[in-house]
Amino acid sequence: MKKILALLLCAVLCMALIPAMADDAVVIRRAYGYDPNTLDYGKANLDVANFILTHTAEALLTQDATGAYVPGIAESYTKSDDGKVWTFTLRDGLTYQDGTAITTEDLYYAVQRLLDPNDPQDNATFGILNSEAYYAGEAAWEDVGVKVIDDKTIEYTFENPTYESAFTSSSLYAPLEQAFVEAAGATFGTSAETYLADGPYMVSEWVPDSSVTLVKNPAYYNPDAAKVDQIVVILNASNDVQVDMLLAGELDIAAFNNPLYLQTLADSGFVIGESYTSTYQGMNLRGGGRNEETGKFLSNANFRKAINVALDREALAASVMTGYTPTYRLSAPGEPAYVANPDYKAWDTKANVELANQYLDAALEELGATREDIPVIELMCYESQGAIDSLAAVQDQLRVNLGLETAIAPKTIQVMISDAMSGNYDLWWGGNANSVPDACESYLDGYQSNSPMPLRGYADPEFDALFQATVTSATLEERLANYAKLEAYFCENAMSIILGWDATYVVTAPGLTGYYIMDGGYLNVSGVTK
To answer: 257 Cβ partners below 8 Å, 6+ apart?
Structure first.
């Protein structure tokens, strides 16, 4: 009861700090198709949550409009010659939105909470020295490579060389006020009252399945960075609805990859601005399947290859995946890994039915099975019509080209994420964000045999060796060369089914300027004028 009362009192104090809106206030409105569910750094993994966290959760480093990595809550930092030991010094006078001081103990707690083996977090990552061993119960917390030097200085030691881009992550390198988090308990990050911002904005109101409103954080150390007075995030608006809202003057900024939407808006005077590739879309494939029956087949490389080459990516892009470019590899154009190895092509963008059936026959021979033995493979997705339509097209291609029967399983966003994170799926329709310098820490790490999370379900020593060679590379150039081998192995063994790269365009009303795009396709609107 004391914790609850303390939390409510803190919430009242936080709300009292919200400034009144002036008549000439700049308000930016953006919409998403669903609720963020949570802003808990350890669990948040939806694009709407990432948009909100971009403006409310500041990490040690951040990214400016030029794409450069610049100090965030850290005033300065140093790194060892081998790139494994990083020491950060915090700015003076940092506080959360309620005035509570931010110290390095809050950063220390953020790491400890994310890696707590007794409370597994969806966003747990294991680059810090001995973090994976601690998570697995094979090392003490004192052995983990994070050390508080004093109230303003913290040191991180990593297993492998690390780059500036890592420290922009709110999940691991943004501070958490331990007393606030523990008082909120399981509700932390699920409402305006149970979330505590340290960035330029704070959550003033969160009406579930309706809207989230952000206002300037009066405690932020650099108030001039927030030029927009209020950011309103409208929820449960499909892309069709967002187009209508733009035309009706009810939104200021949006992002689409559908050329029909873009043409409609351009014809109506909207500005089609900067484009970016933020995700590669397709079907995440769990190597162990959702059960022993499907896992028998999905763990076979030739069976996965059969699925991969039986799909006509060009036909999908022309029908249900409009706005996506058919893929022929994992890395997307523009990513450093693609730029370093531009000529690689793992598969054709059109279906190769003959080759697909050759792979399937080889798989059945290896498994001692017949086509009649193949179980129905489940295709899991979020319950949106776009996802269902896309999987219906995939389902038809697999039936016609390979004789493979599948079942589409639409689920609420919360159930889908829960099933994915617990490994309860065969193929899961979804996108994976691009990252810098490659997909190792953001995607491929889950495919390692010793991954403590059940998400991917693979046990492949050759993949493990290639992964380790990549992440232990001494220089970025060496890393990208090793990553080329890792990517080739991933693609040629069809460890997931990558179908399309999105080419997303920012759409604004005329006169709106000042937004910019951060790594991963995160849209930052804090400097917008209109």
So the answer is: 322, 323, 324, 502, 503, 504, 505
